[in-house]
Write a structure and sequence with these properties.
about 190 residues; alpha/beta; Rossmann fold; four-stranded parallel β-sheet; 7 helices; about 10% strand; elongated
């Protein structure tokens, strides 16, 4: 029997450290790590995990949102693990432990998986409502725009030809992609 862990974050900027520590503390012998949005069906490390596990193994995740995209997706994964004779546990959702393989665990899994999806949908609805209210009140949504004076300063430094892009960005605080976009808009790059 081998205990495997699966850790995932949605973006490359996010850190897996918290999940990895929890999985190590739970006794995972090998941890599959992934930096890809959960909404994508293609998750190479999850596929590798599914190919690796065998009867008697256990898969542990920090929480259900790390491995599943929806209740349906979670149920399909747990059924797949079950067909292979692999147990599945969630550290945050301690009620989920299919390695026990009893009726109560199966019932709890079905009920709480639905609740997890319900909570995720509620959060999404509240976010959309908040965005609609902000838009109706003419609030700007998204990242704050860069100071126009800094952008103009960056463009003038570029036109002078005495500084490279890296130095201009450091001097003005304007990001490289912003500067390139503004130069392109003005036909300077």
């Amino acid at each position: 029997m081998t205990i495997y862990g699966y850790a995932r974050v949605s973006t490359k900027d996010q850190n897996l450290a918290r999940q990895i520590k929890a999985l190590n503390d739970a006794g995972c012998e090998q941890i599959f790590r992934e930096k890809v949005t959960g909404t994508k069906r293609e998750r190479p490390q999850l596929e590798a995990l599914l190919e690796t596990v065998k009867e008697g193994d256990v898969v542990i995740v920090k929480d259900l949102t790390r491995i599943s995209r929806s209740t349906k997706d979670l149920i399909e994964l747990v059924e797949l693990f079950g067909k292979k004779g692999v147990g599945f546990k969630s550290l945050n959702e301690s009620w989920l432990d299919t390695s026990k393989n009893d009726a109560v665990s199966k019932l709890m899994f079905t009920i709480f998986a639905g609740l997890v999806e319900f909570e995720r949908n509620q959060l999404s609805e509240r976010t959309l409502e908040g965005l609609a209210v902000a838009k109706a009140n003419n609030k700007r949504i998204g990242r704050p725009s860069k100071d126009k004076a800094n952008i103009e300063h960056a463009i003038s430094l570029w036109e002078n030809g005495r500084h490279n892009i890296k130095d201009i960005c450091k001097i003005t605080g304007v990001g490289k992609s912003t500067l390139y976009r503004k130069l392109k808009e003005r036909g300077l790059k």
